[in-house]
């Protein structure tokens, strides 16, 4: 004979009687991300303010129209995120970021794609091109949450939203086994595969670091991983691909290429060790 115990949601009270189980304590509310909007374009400023107001995790602490006013607000208030226009009077967005010793998370907003490379050199979280659509805005704020540790995994940040796009990309045109053409803006630039050191996902763009230059192309990690020859390149992280013969040093969860330290994701470590020649 088997005896089954069924939990009826009762608990023993101090008096020995039974009573319904007390309700579980409510989950703590997430800490809002304190947001500053700096944009000298009134229509863009209004749109970003509306988007921020609609977002449950954002708390707008200030809105301004130039870098100097933004710097003053940063001295007076705690700010976690700046939605920052690149081109502003007196002090540009890039100049503001470079002037800060410990900047908050930065999402650049601009009408010009050509600033993308320079923006990512100052370690922005994302780069939005005007007019900004709300879906793209949500993607950027999710990346900010991951950077700040308020959501998602920091070890392996999410990739560009176009990751699952399987359409043919014109941004990495194969010309031979030794060279590719990179579509950088309106230019097609012939680059030797042996000169490519590493590739990093940056928002909706891929930053291609070569020995003598760097290029920003609008593609996905999936596309590049499929197009680049697997005998020469390997994916080491959700956001990084490297050329194998450029690796100088590997230690734990990082490797070094030309003095640059790059992360190795846990799910990519075994394949990397298998692919390199060890003694």
Automatic annotation (TrEMBL):
UniProt-listed Gene3D superfamilies: 3.40.50.2300, LytTr DNA-binding domain (2.40.50.1020)
Single GO MF descriptor: phosphorelay response regulator activity
Region (Disordered): 145-176
Top-level taxon: Bacteria
Keywords: Phosphoprotein, Plasmid
Modification type 4-aspartylphosphate: residues: 85
Protein name, UniProt field: Two-component system response regulator protein
Native source organism of the sequence: Salinibacter ruber (strain M8)
Gene from which the chain derives: lytT
């Amino acid at each position: 004979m088997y005896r089954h115990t069924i939990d009826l949601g009762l608990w023993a009270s101090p008096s020995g009687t039974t009573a319904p189980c007390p309700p579980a304590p409510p989950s703590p509310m997430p800490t809002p991300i304190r947001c500053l909007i700096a944009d000298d374009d009134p229509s863009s400023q209004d749109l970003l303010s509306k988007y921020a107001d609609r977002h449950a995790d954002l708390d707008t602490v200030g809105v301004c129209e130039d870098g100097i006013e933004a710097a003053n607000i940063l001295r007076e208030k705690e700010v976690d995120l700046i939605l920052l226009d690149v081109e502003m009077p007196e002090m540009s967005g890039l100049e503001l970021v470079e002037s800060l010793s410990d900047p908050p998370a930065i999402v650049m907003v601009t009408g010009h794609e050509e600033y993308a490379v320079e923006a990512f050199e100052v370690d922005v979280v994302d780069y939005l091109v005007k007019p900004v659509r709300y879906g793209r805005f949500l993607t950027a704020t999710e990346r900010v949450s991951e950077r700040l540790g308020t959501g998602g995994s920091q070890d392996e940040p999410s990739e560009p939203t176009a990751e699952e796009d399987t359409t043919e990309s014109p941004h990495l045109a194969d010309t031979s086994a030794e060279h590719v053409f990179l579509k950088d803006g309106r230019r097609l630039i012939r680059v030797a595969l042996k000169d490519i050191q590493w590739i990093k996902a940056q928002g909706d763009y891929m930053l291609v670091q070569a020995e003598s230059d760097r290029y920003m192309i609008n593609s996905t990690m999936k596309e590049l991983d499929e197009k680049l020859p697997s005998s020469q390149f390997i994916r080491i992280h959700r956001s990084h691909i490297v050329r194998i013969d450029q690796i100088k040093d590997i230690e734990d969860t990082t490797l070094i290429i030309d003095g640059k330290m790059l992360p190795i994701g846990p799910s990519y470590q075994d394949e990397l060790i298998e692919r390199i020649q060890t003694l």
